[in-house]
Amino acid sequence: MELRQLRYFVAVAEESHFTRAADRLHIAQSGLSASIRALERELGADLFRRNTRQVRLTPEGRALLVEARRALAASDAARDAVAAVQGLLRGSLSIGSLQCLHAVDLPTVLAGFVAAHPGLDIRLRHGGSGELVEQVREGRLDLALVLRPAREPDDLVVAPLASEPLVLACAPGHPLAACGKVGLEALRGERFVDFPPDWGTRTRADEALAAAGVDRHVALEVTDVHSLLALVGNGLGVALVPRSFSAKTARVRFLELADPAPMWETVAVSGAVSGAPGGGAAAALLDEIYRVAR
């Protein structure tokens, strides 16, 4: 079994189509098909179910996909480690980030990092904390900047970045807007605006309200910060958000929560093989994040 075969296999699995995978890999489709057939013969199992429109992974293919991604990530990490000793960073670095990451000025960090390492191909994607952590586990991301998981994963490396309290966001005309500090129990019966269930802010708000015995109703679900704040500002619901969101608009009232206020903690999550902290491009980027934050 060769790494090249595994890269071809992962491309077909992700594209669900041989022609698209061949285009992505810049190889002839006939060569790609022959490589996959050779891999199936070696493993003694069909990895895909094929039809005229698309291909689907078999149970054996799904099992191989997880390990193939890990093997490719380990190979990339080994190459990066050697390059790091030589003072060079090459190859690619895939980063995942929450959409609104106040703790890290990611554009500034990446601008300096790319300038310092022009041979490195940087890839960035946004998503929810749960989704991004799982992509690190699968080897699809090298580093994810997310909310600290409720349960610390044994198979991943978690490095702290920053923490801040959650606050209540409400419309200026809301009955609670004139309060100083608000207890979570005062939010019983309120209509909430929030993000999807696997997003970090939603997870932390759910945990805090459940601990306070508040059964809440999320009426409006959005996928970007500005829409959430616009809905709140127009009186369509309240939200629990990191305090840094208060810098984004003057049309929403932000109120401190009564002590002990639930905290929002941002962390960097990496795979054990890609090693942040511990070497390679992911570790170098994390060092740059800490340097800019100082």
Automatic annotation (TrEMBL):
MF (Gene Ontology): DNA binding; DNA-binding transcription factor activity
InterPro entries: LysR_HTH_N, LysR_subst-bd, WH-like_DNA-bd_sf, WH_DNA-bd_sf
The organism of origin for this protein: Microbispora bryophytorum
Record-linked Gene3D superfamilies: 3.40.190.290, Winged helix-like DNA-binding domain superfamily/Winged helix DNA-binding domain
GO cellular component: protein-DNA complex
Source taxon at top rank: Bacteria
Pfam families documented for this protein: HTH_1, LysR_substrate
Family: Belongs to the LysR transcriptional regulatory family.
Keyword Transit peptide: no
The protein, known as: Transcriptional regulator
Residues of the HTH lysR-type domain: 1-58
Keyword DNA-binding in annotation: yes
Keywords: DNA-binding, Transcription, Transcription regulation
